Structure formats: C-alpha cells, structure tokens
Please model this.
Amino acid sequence: QSVLTQPPSVSGAPGQRVTISCTGSSSNIGAGYDVHWYQQLPGTAPKLLIYADNNRPSGVPDRFSGSKSATSVSLAITGLQAEDEADYYCQSYDISLSGWVFGGGTKLTVL
Amino acid sequence: QVHLQESGPGLVKPSQTLSLTCTVSGGSITSGSYYWTWIRQPAGKGLEWIGRIFPSGSTNYNPSLKGRVTISVDTSKNQFSLKLSSVTAADTAVYYCARVGKLRAFDIWGQGTMVTVSS
Model:
C-alpha cells in the first residue's frame, strides 16, 4: 500500500489530453512538501519529468505539466503521443516517516 | 554529465546480506549539497525508497526495512554502497541508485541492477 495514491491506469487516444492524480495526506502533500513526477518507459530507469509540483527539467516537452491543490496534485499530458506510453510515478517527502515516498504508479496506455 | 552505475551480485541466498555499490562518474560525490540514494522496484510493482546518505556520512533509512539497511560512502572511490541483511524472496527487485540534487528530486538515476534472492 503506497503512501501516495494514484490511479492504476489511464488511457487516451493520440492527440488527446489525460491527467493523472496523486493524493496524499497532511504528513506529505498537505504539509506543503514538493511533489515530483517520473516517467518510466518499459525496461528503463525512471526519469524526472516534473519537479517541485509544476516545473519541467530541461528537455522535457511542455506537453507535460503539473498542478497542485491542498492534498492532491495532478500530472497533465496534452497532445498524447505513442511514445508517452509508460508508467508515471509521483513522489514526495513524508514527515511522519521521515523519508521519501512514492505513489503506486499509473500505467498510461495510448490507444 | 554525472553518471551512476550500480554493481554487485545478481543472486543472493536467503538470510544472507545483499551488497551493492554505486559508482559516480563525471563529477565528485562530495561536490554540491547532494543526497545519494537507493531505490528498489520488484518486478511489475512500484518504486520503494530504501535510504539516503550525505557525503558527510549522515544517513536516513526507510523505517519499513526495520534496521536491515546500511548505506555507506567511500569518497576516495567516488562510490556509495548498500547493504541489506537477512534477505528474503521479498527483497528480489531491481535496485537503483539515484541522486537528489538541487531540484530536491531524484534527478539522476543509474540503469538499475536486478537482484534475485533464491537458494
């Protein structure tokens, strides 16, 4: 059972927009800790996609964006492409565990 | 460009100690305010943070691993290491080393190494 909750799967057709939610609690997201998103293509290591809620590292297309509310955050992907098919993970810090925590991951299928 | 590479045995017997090393190249392990971390991923499952070390030697571990974890650093070799004791089949996973950089996120990852716990 992951500390951060994500939907197991989402799907969309090429060109569409999808969102992936990540819900936490008052000991992590609700406490104001940054949330980061990672993309894991099949058979590869995760790659940092969004950091500090809504910032993109150099080289990440602006089709990817993050947003945040009180205790949940979302990753949005617009203009879906076949190459976006991957697993996506949110991650934050949890003060009660004194450590970093991940969501369970969301598998994105491009139809 | 900093690069991380995991190394170590791919097969460990139950009750023994899993030992892995992460070699940092393209930069010094002591430069900047970076944490060096270990993360694992069982086949078909999600990511689990194992622990972290600061170059000074300060460590933090995932409480779920119940004192079985030790992370150490060898600055002379630009490496940091993971030891996980009393392993069981549940410890079978791909183990990644990663850096927490100025973005306060896992910004650089190794390619991962598969460790199987089996007799």
User: Anything to note?
Assistant: The two ends of chain A are 28 Å apart (CA to CA).
